[in-house]
Amino acid sequence: MISVSYSAWIYFLFSIIACTFITVRLTIFFPWNNKAVNSGFPLFFGMSLAPFLFGVLSLIALFLFPNYKHNIHFLFILITEGLLVLIAFLGVREGFQKRQLSLFKKLDFIEKLAILLLLLFLLCLLVNSIFFPLTQNDSLEYATVGRILFEKPDLSNYPVLNSELNTSGFYAPWTHPPLYAAMIYTSYLFQGDAEYAGLMRLISPWFAFCGVALTFAIGSLITRRVGLFSGIFLISTPLFFLGSDSALIDSLPILGLLLGFSSIVAIKSPSVKSGIIQGTLLGLAMWTHSQSILFLPLCIVCLFVFGRGKIKYNFLKQCVVLVTVCIFIAAFPYLRNILIYGTLVSDSNTIYQLSTLEWSAYFREARGINSFTAILQYGIFKGWFAIEYFGFIFWLMIFALIYLLPLITKLSFKNILDKFQIVVLSFGIVCTYLLGIIVSIFFGLDIMIRNERYWLVILPFVSIIAGWFYSVCIDHKSKNLFLNIIRLVMIFSFVFLIMLQFTIFATYRFLATSTSIRQILNPLEEKQLRFSELQSMSFLKKYTRKNAVIYATQPANMFYSARKMVSYLDPRLLNFYLSTNPQEGMKILKRLGITHIYITDYSLPIFYNSQLMNIVANPSVTKLIYSSGGSQIYLLDYSKSNFQWGKQDSNSEFIWIKHKQYRLLGKKGGFVINTEPVELKPQEVSISQLPFNLFQRNFSTLIASEKNTNIIHGGSEYVIELSLTGKGFLSFYVTQFDKFGNALKDKKHPSSYSNLIGNLVLENDAKPHKFLRRIKTLSNTYFIEISIEQEGNSSVAINRMYLNELTKEPSDYE
Question: DSSP letters of 323-368?
């Protein structure tokens, strides 16, 4: 479990309880409408403000006391919380007990089951966060930035733009506001060190819990059952749950937008006071993520619809106050972005802008948005077709729309809002967001469609619509037998799917770390070693000099290495990526003081479109000192001037077999259907195509070498060299077999027989592309199988292949 002292737990729990008490008491002063008061809305709203108060105090401590000792910040936060608790307790008493809480009224059987299921999901979220190690890439990067703030507690150190001045060497040119980083810093304050990602694991679950609670409260403005179903749909969505238990930032902007929406539907309007409250909440929300810059126009549209589309003086006055307050509160990080980057928000940097690396081709092919059809299916309609991320909740929303349309066609706009206010406003948020995506695509921007996580901010509103329709399905029986059957099938199908998702959420961490229930209390450090990429960090920590400098192709994992890195995004590597031969590249790496190279199992353009691939494949200048799965560490040898090494053409020995794989639940989903394998003739083009380029992410073609023709030596190093032409995104795998044909597992990487060793984007059908990778065979390996997976609608021809044995000697570090 999270290895921190009892006192650290006490400080953190005190902050949660204190901030919640303060913000719940604060809601007494809000001008709630009658429906909100009667449903107990202020309680859940107040709970949801609490993590923002904690974040604001963290920011204020860093702002008021830059580079002060940790004790000053620690005492400021705890003493301020204590004083605010005292003020809230003594100053806010009258009227607090008069609140009606619908949650405490008599519950029916279905509601009791719903509450139980909701609590089980939340318990599972806490178990996964507390008892399992942090492995998610973006979360580890935030943990690293929090550590940099812990070393130099000053907001001027965010974003991290000078990698030479921090001990980790991390480079993070982010445009996200520093709220999350400041909260991580405070969690390190409580635990007394920044060596491990301890209490920070609970920040995202805290926001997620509040997001579910506020979604329940908004849904309860319709009925309590709708609220419960809405909360379940939100927490059971794979990307939301798995992101929250992986300490991703997404639950912060989700809660921020929910607070802004809540202030519109639950607070009396229009008035200057409501404008101030709404502006303050949106201003706070815009400190969560650079994506939150969209929240202001979203909420203005929502406010306009809520006011029945009437533009009156009071409405305009409220909007002016709202916008002014919001900009005043949120301006600082965005103005700073303009000063640093020349723009409000951006996801680009110097390395991404290098045309020679061809990043745009990588994002198109790797994200499966490489055609007009794919942009429609996995861009604009991502929520419906990326089932592995969103489940079927967007489809349930479509059924809700089909049901709703006949009901509202004969009603006036005023009557529609009176009868279906929350549902219509939720639809408004979703539709406005989709319209924004379409506009961004029209202007040639793909930032909104590249990342599934950007869709999570509208997920609560999709959940509310789905929860409303699901409640309708349960409550309203039809006289039509056929419709009744459909209704019952839909009800029980979603019960089955949600229970299946809960089972997956509750077990996948145990399976990934090979942990039994009896081992759940084992140290996180022990569980980390079940991941090959984190084993490599343990190797760096144990077997390399403390002054070693690591070129990191996955900087996030370096959080566990206790070694300095040069991130692949560091602008100091610009000339390296522009170098035209390995000799020139080696000189640049030497000038930067780089001693080792850390390679991951996946490949970015900085690997196959630069000299990095040639350098790590060359045994005369690099020594492979660690290899597990696809994670490798190389020691650089600058003393060698010979860049030539012998090659043996073994292309004629390879027989290639291909078959298609159809993935029914998306790119990362299960239920794979394999077709019959067929032999691929020498240099034959393997074409993988569906009509109109549909379902790009739902199928692939696997081309595998016949293992019985590839007899090799165990305990040896080999270089795999492939020359390919075509168009598409390729993944390369290696599977090792003993002399009896049994697939082998690396003891250091026991989760899979087949190991990913890299990727390659083919952009030009005629231009040959090269892929190089070194591998280390297991001691009892006799055969080897090399597989090439071409994703979706694509084509590839294998021009030639080399398999070169380098040495039979094991590494000195083994």
Answer: HHHHHHHHHHHHHHHHHHHSSS--S--TTTT-GGGTHHHHHHHHTT
pTM here is 0.94
With vertex at residue 62, the alpha carbon angle to CA 156 and CA 143, rounded to the nearest 5 degrees, is 75
Backbone angles phi, psi at 663, to 5 degrees: -100, 110
Q: What is the per-residue burial (b if ≥16 Cβ within 10 Å, else e) of 331-369?
A: eebbebbeeebeeebbbebebbebeebbbebbbbbbbbb
Which of 739, 774, 737, 740 lies closest to 753 in space, CA to CA?
737
Element (H, E) at 219: helix 203-220
Distance between CA atoms of residues 482 and 484, nearest Å: 5
List, in sequence order, the alpha helices (H) in 443-531.
Answer: 447-450, 459-475, 481-512, 524-528
CB atoms within 10 A of CB 197: 27
Amino acid at 280: T
DSSP letter (8 states) at residue 610: S
Tell me how far CA of residue 613 lies from CA of 91, 346, 426, 770, 772, in angstroms: 66, 29, 49, 10, 6
Question: Does the pLDDT of residue 221 top 70, yes or no?
Answer: yes
As to burial, measured by CB atoms within 10 angstroms (0-12 exposed, 13-18 middle, 19+ buried), residue 234 is buried
Q: The tokens of 751 are what?
A: 């989760």
CA 637 to chain centre: 37
pLDDT (0 to 100) of residue 248: 96
What gap in Å lies between CA 543 and CA 625, rounded to an integer? 10
- Rounded CA-CA distance 485/64 in Å is 64
pLDDT digits (tens, 9 = 90+) for 736-769: 999 888 998 876 665 567 899 999 999 877 789 9
The secondary element (H helix, E strand) that includes residue 761 is strand 754-762
- Are the C-beta atoms of residues 32 and 41 closer than 8 Å to each other? yes
**Is the Cβ–Cβ distance between 601 and 557 less than 8 Å?**
no
Distance CA 622, CA 638 (A): 9
Q: What share of the chain is helix, strand, coil (3-state, %, to 5)?
A: 55, 15, 30
Read off the tokens for 276. 């101030």
8 Å CB contact between 226 and 471: yes
Could you give the CA distance from residue 563 to residue 549 in angstroms, rounded to a whole number? 7
> Is beta strand 564-567 parallel, antiparallel or unpaired with respect to 549-552?
parallel
